[in-house]
Amino acid sequence: MSSLSILVVDDERPILTLISRILEGGGHRVRTAGSGEDALDLCNGLKAPLDLLITDIVMPGMDGLLLAENVERIFPGVRVLFMSGKCDVAALRKHITDTRHRFLPKPFRVHELIGEVRGMLGESPLRASA
Questions:
Q1: What whole-number distance in Å separates Cα of residue 86 and Cα of residue 88?
Q2: Where are the alpha helices (DSSP H) in 83-129?
Q3: CATH number of residue 35's parent domain
Q4: pLDDT at 95
């Protein structure tokens, strides 16, 4: 079983639930938050490092880009997978220049999520349980 820690942040509960189930099926420790503010509070309380942040970009309050900046201050070197179905992808790619960052457009298929996570964490394929 993997010891990698993943935080999934999205203001849409069904998306949080789906992604969490998929990643937990792959053996990951998954935490979830419904907002950038809740995610930042959670990160401030973590004792172990966070390996991957998966966050929606467009959310009420703190957006995913600002959340990632804040999380990277707490966990330098954390990888970030941004997701969105509501933003200008070309403009976004200009902001995501760090090699530890990737973007997955919504809607996506389970195998696309698994492939991105696997590639970012450098591990063997995850089982899809959802």
A1: 7
A2: 89-95, 110-121
A3: 3.40.50.2300
A4: 65
